[in-house]
Amino acid sequence: MIRRLALGALTLGSVLVVLFCLLGGRQAELGFAVLAFAFPALLMIVGATDRRGRLGSIAWPVGALLVVLEASLLGMLALSGDPGAAARLSHPLVAVALQVVGVAGLPLALIACGYALTFDGFGVADDDLARLRDLAEPRDPE
User: Fold this and answer.
1) Distance CA 142, CA 139 (A)
2) Rounded to an integer, what distance in angstroms lies between the CA atom of residue 71 and that of residue 32?
3) For every residue of the chain, which 3-state class applies, written as one string?
4) Which of 23, 66, 16 is nearest to 42 (CA)?
5) What is the pTM of this model?
6) pLDDT tens, position by position, 19-56
7) Any idea where the domains of the chain sit in the sequence?
8) 37 in Cβ contact with 70 (< 8 Å)
9) What is the pLDDT of residues 74-119, one digit of tens each?
10) Residue 34: which of 18, 50, 17 has the closest Cα?
11) How far apart are CA 96 and CA 137, in angstroms?
């Protein structure tokens, strides 16, 4: 179910991104950016969903990734919309730090730690290995 929702969101989002590119304007730029920043999380949902359609414990890191990416985007948009905003900030490199940390560093750490903490759910379980060993043993022709 969750995989179908993510695939539907990716399909609709792709159509909307193309439409926003054709329309132009500030609202189209905002819509394009919001949808483009949601794509990584949606693709991870499609890839991490198991055969039964469940996302499992990786849902929290992927959800956190979506929130971090969208918050970083909104922060960058807030700084770009006001020409004096960067000058009023305590340090002139805050916008660059927001991009580097919010768009690259923190999302990478979130997903790396999320997969590391939930890796057992994505691997082969002990009972699966035992079943494979049983299947691999030669059988008597009797």
Assistant:
1) 9
2) 15
3) CHHHHHHHHHHHHHHHHHHHHHHCCHHHHHHHHHHHHHHHHHHHHHHHCCCCCCCHHHHHHHHHHHHHHHHHHHHHHHHHHCCCHHHHCCCCCHHHHHHHHHHHHHHHHHHHHHHHHCHHHCCCCHHHHHHHHHHHCCCCCC
4) 66
5) 0.69
6) 988 888 888 888 888 888 899 989 888 888 877 778 87
7) 2-122
8) yes
9) 877 777 665 565 555 555 577 777 778 888 888 888 888 888 887 7
10) 17
11) 59
Kindly state the tokens that stand for 2.
Answer: 């969750």
- CA dihedral over 106, 65, 71, 37, signed as positive or negative: positive
How far is 83 from 62, CA to CA, in rounded Å? 33
Q: What amino acid occupies position 36?
A: A
Residue of 2, 75, 69, 72 whose CA lies nearest to 39: 69
The number of residues making up the chain comes to: 142
Describe the crossing of helices 2-23 and 26-48 by its angle, rounded to 10 degrees: 160
CA R_g for the chain:
22
